Amino acid sequence: EGPRRFTQIEHSCAGISPRTLAERLRWLEGEEIVVRRSYAESPPRVEYELTDKGAALLPLINEMRRFGHEWLGCGVHDHP
What we know:
The protein is α+β, with helices and mostly antiparallel strands. The protein has helices at 6-12, 18-30, 52-56, 58-71; strands spanning 4-5, 34-39, 45-50.
């Protein structure tokens, strides 16, 4: 979905602490799954975006999400 600011990612990950999110983003950056871009603005702006390597993971993540909805009882696809 394109670049995201830290606060946008934080809001989409309900319940994650800012410290944990920052650690995870640093790890993902180190693994070249996301790229961090800083902009010399006032106030400073930082955005994170998936790399090609990160985008290649999307089909796997989407399948894991589908599996979770179908089999782990979140109510989206209840089984009889």
